[in-house]
Each structure stands twice: as structure tokens, then as C-alpha cells.
Amino acid sequence: MKGFEYLQKELDEMQEQGTFRHLIPLESAQGSKVTIKGKEVIQLSSNNYLGLTSHPKMKDAADKANADYGVGTGSVRTIAGTLKMHEDFEEKLAKFKHTEAALVFQSGFTTNQGVLSSILGKEDVVISDELNHASIIDGIRLTKADRKIYKHVDMESLESALKESENYRTKLIVTDGVFSMDGNIAPLPEIVELAERYNALVMVDDAHASGVLGDNGRGTVNHFNLDGRVHIQVGTLSKAIGVLGGYVASTKTLRDYLIHKGRPFLFSTSHPPAVTAANDAAIDVLLEEPELIEKLWDNTKFFKDGLNALGFDTGISETPVTPVMVGDDALTHKFSDELFEAGVFAQGIVFPTVPRGKGRIRTIVTAEHSKEELQEALNAFEKVGKKLGIL
Ligand code: PMP
Q1: C-alpha 323: how far from its chain's center?
Q2: Architecture of 72-271 per CATH?
Q3: Does the C-beta of 236 come closer than 6 Å to ligand 1?
Q4: In CATH, which of 3.50.50.60, 3.90.1150.10, 3.40.109.30, 2.60.40.420 is domain 20-53+290-388?
Q5: Which of 28, 67, 120, 205 sits in a 20 to 30 Å window from 42, CA-based?
Q6: Residue 165 near residue 125 (C-beta atoms within 8 A)
Q7: Mind telling me which residue stretches traverse the membrane in this protein (predicted)?
Q8: What is the pLDDT of residues 220-239, one digit of tens each?
Q9: Could you give the CA distance from residue 233 to residue 100 in angstroms, rounded to a whole number?
Q10: ipTM of this predicted complex?
Q11: What is residue 363's three-state secondary structure?
């Protein structure tokens, strides 16, 4: 069919530049080892931090919900698609996060879009870290608010943006809690202090911190003992929680407002019962099995120390998100391909996801990995690193 030649041209250019991406289908369940192209490899690229994608309690809860309530809801939340279990889960989540209320969106991505686009108008300003996630950037693009970008985790840069923002109705500072490509933690105590000094609101995206940081995985705010001082916590239910969805944990006012104005919430069908039941069971797992988070951090330390001892540069990572810096884009892809041959699935991340020349293999270990698997992965990194002259 004719009509898309201009798109094909762009794809052909990507092919020439080596940036064209093929999707890589898993032929097994997600786990510490997965099957790809018929080969069993160690998985180091998922966000399945706690291994919850296959947790028996969560699978049982999903099976039961499927059997009792069917596979879909048949409506958006605001018309006929709110099940009691949706609201029960939101109450449980709010309690877990130590907030007044919570609201679930279809994904973390649409949560950021829905929150930012609805609560900010032309009288407002949003002040955003330059390395915030794409969904925050897109959410900001959807608002009529003025926008200021501060240098990554640079508090002087944030303060000067705040100083220039005196005359707005609402000033909203927004930051990732854990940055997804470098694995560093936002300096939230300093951000909150500045926000309080300049009368601004704070929004934190805990996509990579939910289930990872704080007591029982309550996130960055709890990790820094800032409960009650951060206005909006958003996050995903799709990474450590192991299922699907996004949430906002905040005040009852914000929840009520988003029910009326959050466009992805208003105009997109609610989560299937199995998804909500599994998300709900995940909170119980976080409360009942804190050893999973301990194992995640123990594995993270083992793997990161191992990489550093070999001589790899893991940048500024402080969390399980551990980049192995390579530099050149083509070399990064080559590194990833060679790792696969050596039995490790670890994807290369290059421009435009990270700045040009900052290509890296982004690894994330999980609570499911055994030390033997991680040692095997370290051996593969050593072999390939030496072969490609990175070590
Ligand atoms: N925010 C951040 C910081 C993320 O890393 C991601 C996941 N890529 C999202 C939001 C989006 O979450 P989800 O995958 O649930 O849409």
C-alpha cells in the first residue's frame, strides 16, 4: 500500500546508522533466565526487580479474579467500569504509601500525562529535571504552563529556576525518584527544602523506586523520611510490582480532581480484574516478604562490586539500575550482541535515549537471580569486555 514512503525513508536511514531496533521476543516467562531465539540466557534487562511477575500468590489472585469477574471490565472507570476491587486496591495502596488517597491509571506513562496535563494551566510553572522520564516530558508538553528545565540533580540550577518563578499561581517541581538510565537517586531532601522555602509543590516519579526503596518498598519519599512533605507521588505497577498500571498517591482533593479531569483516566477502559487482583496481592507480598527486597539489594551489591572490581565504569548508580558505560553507540550494540552469545541478555542503550557518546549496557539484577547466575554473568562481561578492548 502506498502512502508511507516518507516513514520508510526514515527507517532506512536508521538502518544505515545502525539505530534500527528489532523487538526481541521472549519464548519463556520473565525470570532470572529467559529463552530467546531458542537459547536460555541470564536476564539482566528486565524491571522485574523482585521477581513478582511469577509470584504464586499473585498468579493465584489473578486466576481467581479471572474466574469470578471475567477478563475485562467493559467500560471506563467513570461510566460503568469501576469494580469494588479497583477502589479497595486504591485504598490499600494509599495506606501503604502513607497518603490520604490513591488513584490508579492504566500505566505509569499515562499517570504522568494525566496528572501533569490536568493540574497545570497557563498561570502555573513546572520546573523539571533535565533527565526526567519521557512520560514527564510528554505530560509537560500537554500543559499550557510555563516550563523551566534545571540541570540534572543540580540544586543551584533548581534554586535559580525557583527564584525566577515568583509570580505564578502554582510552582510544581517534578523529578524522577530514581533516574532510569543512571540509577542515581534524586536529592529529595534538598528538593523538598527548596520547595518549602519557595512555596512550590513537589511531584516524584517512583517508577524505579516503588518496591525497591523505603520500608517494604514504599519508595523514595519514605526512604528519605519525607512522608507528608511531598505533594504528589506517582509510580508504576509494572516494574517491581510485576503487573501493569500506574498510580498517583496524594490527597483526596487531587484524587477527586483527577477523576474529573485526568484524561487518560476518564477516556480509557479500566484494568481487567486479574490485573487489579495481582496488583493488590503484590502489596501483601511487599508487606509479608521483606526478604525479597533484601535479596534484591544484596544481589545488586554483589553484581555492582563485581563489575567495578573487573574495572567497568558503572557511573553514578546507587540502585539496582546499573549501567556499564561503553561510549560509542556501535560498540555498545556489539557488546550486547557478544554478551548474548556468551549467555547473557543485557540490552545496549544508545542515543537518543541517552546522550550521544554515552552508550551503555543497562543492567538490572533481580531478587530472583542466584549468586551463581550473577557470577556467570560477570564472567561473560569480563570475557566480552576484554575481547572488545573495554577492559
Ligand atoms: N516513569 C519512569 C521514570 C519510567 O522509567 C517508566 C517506565 N519506562 C514510566 C514512568 C512508565 O511506566 P509504565 O511502564 O508503567 O508506563
Answers
A1: 15
A2: 3-Layer(aba) Sandwich (3.40)
A3: yes
A4: 3.90.1150.10
A5: 205
A6: yes
A7: none
A8: 999 999 999 999 999 999 99
A9: 12
A10: 0.98
A11: strand
